[in-house]
Structures are given as structure tokens and as C-alpha cells.
């Protein structure tokens, strides 16, 4: 069950200090102020933040994109919840929030990838209404 004091909303530039403060405790790497500002000012990028009072305890980021033969889709890039706040429904709520936002802006679907070994993420995505595909997807990365 989610903690009652958690509020989820989309991030804006007023959240920059809170994002910098939580930093690597929630994000993969140190926060880059110029990239954060760029992200927050790009209308195709979306960052949902979970707050307990004025402190960020969780986040989910995504980008919506269009393609010549498809309606807009939301790719959920990352979901993260601080260790002491995990297993309280915050990750699931962040995913649901991003999906509702994506629907509101006209996306027809949302999708996310995770590793086979990441049981916590799979649990959160299923609880948020996601359906696991049976396909054996292979990820390729390109260093640029």
C-alpha cells in the first residue's frame, strides 16, 4: 500500500534543486543541471516525481514519440524509488501516473523494457496494468 503522504506530479524547472539534492540516490548518475533544464523544457520528455513533503522519493521518466505509421507512444525510460520507500506501491503509482499523462496527451500505448532478473520492476509493471510479452526481446546498444 502506498504511503498516504506521497504526492505525484510532473516535474518542472522549479524542481531543479530537489532533483539535484536527491541526485544519484535516485538517478543513475550525478545530475547535470544543463541536461535537466533541457529535459524539463522539452515537451516530449516527461518526468513524474513522487514527493514526501518537499523531498523526492521516486521518479519515472519517459519520452513520447511519433512515427509516420503509428499513433504517438510513450517509452518509459526509467523508474526508480528510494530504498526506504520501495514496496509501498510508489513505483506502480508513478507508472500509472505517466500512463495516464500519456493518454491525456494522445498516446495510444506506453511501453517499458526491463531485465529478466529485475523481479521488483516486473512486479511494479504488472501491478500498474502492464502485460508481459512472451517474446524473447534482445537489446542492442550503440556507443556514439
TrEMBL record:
Sequence ranges assigned to domain N-acetyltransferase in this UniProt record: 6-144
Assigned keywords, A-Z: Transferase
Keyword Transferase included in the entry's annotation: yes
GO MF annotations, alphabetized: acyltransferase activity, transferring groups other than amino-acyl groups
InterPro entries reported in the protein's UniProt record: Acyl_CoA_acyltransferase, GNAT_dom
Statement: the UniProt record of this protein carries the keyword Transferase: yes
CDD domains recorded: NAT_SF
Protein name as it appears in the record: GNAT family N-acetyltransferase
Native source species: Aggregatimonas sangjinii
Amino acid at each position: 500500500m502506498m504511503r498516504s503522504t506521497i504526492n505525484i506530479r510532473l516535474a518542472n524547472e522549479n524542481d531543479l534543486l530537489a532533483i539535484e539534492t536527491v541526485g544519484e540516490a535516485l538517478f543513475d548518475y550525478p545530475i547535470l543541471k544543463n541536461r535537466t533544464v533541457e529535459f524539463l523544457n522539452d515537451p516530449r520528455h516527461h518526468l513524474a516525481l513522487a514527493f514526501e513533503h518537499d523531498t523526492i522519493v521516486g521518479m519515472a521518466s519517459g519520452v513520447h514519440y511519433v512515427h509516420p505509421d503509428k499513433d504517438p507512444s510513450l517509452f518509459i525510460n526509467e523508474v526508480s524509488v528510494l530504498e526506504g520507500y520501495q514496496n509501498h506501491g510508489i513505483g506502480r503509482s508513478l507508472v500509472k501516473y505517466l500512463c495516464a499523462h500519456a493518454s491525456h496527451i494522445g498516446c495510444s500505448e506506453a511501453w517499458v523494457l526491463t531485465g529478466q532478473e529485475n523481479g521488483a520492476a516486473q512486479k511494479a509493471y504488472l501491478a500498474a496494468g502492464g502485460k508481459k510479452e512472451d517474446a524473447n526481446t534482445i537489446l542492442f546498444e550503440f556507443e556514439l
